[in-house]
């Protein structure tokens, strides 16, 4: 299984990169438009890889960071979402915007992705709403701390995530107080 490829970027097109390794072997890698925008032809490049082996193909999907790779992998778990749709999401949205849309049930953000209609957006939100998309890298740490504190008090994560965007507090203590009032 290939998990990372490092070498010289010899060819760059929207959605496709070719990286030549030191041993002379070149790999064609499918990438998002967001990833493509960060690469420079002729430079040493490293991409994280998701290898998908099918009966008729051995495909390599490349990502500049773990967030984009995780978003792609999480989307593949949604029934009816394939690699093309997952890559379209990676090309259109940043991980933080995607996670926020799923957490807040924002179909409007997801339907900005080519190929995703209202039905698919709702399905993505429904199937991923319980997924662990929140990390301290994606949300301000005070929000992450508040979520953990509220969960330890026995509140359900989905209810916390629904009221959190309506809270105005900018620190952990105030956010917990405000959330408790709304959850009670």
TrEMBL record:
Positions of the Helix-hairpin-helix DNA-binding motif class domain: 73-92, 108-127
Subcellular location: Cytoplasm
Keywords: ATP-binding, Cytoplasm, DNA damage, DNA recombination, DNA repair, DNA-binding, Helicase, Hydrolase, Nucleotide-binding
GO cellular component terms attached to this protein's record: cytoplasm; Holliday junction helicase complex; Holliday junction resolvase complex
Region (Domain III): 137-184
Domain I: annotated segments: 1-64
Gene3D superfamilies listed in its UniProt record: 5' to 3' exonuclease, C-terminal subdomain, Nucleic acid-binding proteins
Cited Pfam families: HHH_5, RuvA_C, RuvA_N
Signal peptide: none
Gene Ontology molecular-function annotations: ATP binding; four-way junction DNA binding; four-way junction helicase activity; hydrolase activity
SUPFAM superfamilies: DNA helicase RuvA subunit, C-terminal domain (SSF46929), Nucleic acid-binding proteins (SSF50249), RuvA domain 2-like (SSF47781)
GO biological process: DNA recombination; DNA repair
Keyword field contains Phosphoprotein: no
UniProt cross-references to InterPro entries, sorted A to Z: DNA_helicase_Holl-junc_RuvA_I (IPR013849), Hlx-hairpin-Hlx_DNA-bd_motif (IPR003583), NA-bd_OB-fold (IPR012340), RuvA (IPR000085), RuvA_2-like (IPR010994), RuvA_C (IPR011114), RuvA_C_sf (IPR036267)
Domain notes: Has three domains with a flexible linker between the domains II and III and assumes an 'L' shape. Domain III is highly mobile and contacts RuvB.
Oligomer and partners: Homotetramer. Forms an RuvA(8)-RuvB(12)-Holliday junction (HJ) complex. HJ DNA is sandwiched between 2 RuvA tetramers; dsDNA enters through RuvA and exits via RuvB. An RuvB hexamer assembles on each DNA strand where it exits the tetramer. Each RuvB hexamer is contacted by two RuvA subunits (via domain III) on 2 adjacent RuvB subunits; this complex drives branch migration. In the full resolvosome a probable DNA-RuvA(4)-RuvB(12)-RuvC(2) complex forms which resolves the HJ.
Functional summary from the UniProt entry: The RuvA-RuvB-RuvC complex processes Holliday junction (HJ) DNA during genetic recombination and DNA repair, while the RuvA-RuvB complex plays an important role in the rescue of blocked DNA replication forks via replication fork reversal (RFR). RuvA specifically binds to HJ cruciform DNA, conferring on it an open structure. The RuvB hexamer acts as an ATP-dependent pump, pulling dsDNA into and through the RuvAB complex. HJ branch migration allows RuvC to scan DNA until it finds its consensus sequence, where it cleaves and resolves the cruciform DNA.
Family classification: Belongs to the RuvA family.
Stated name of the protein: Holliday junction branch migration complex subunit RuvA
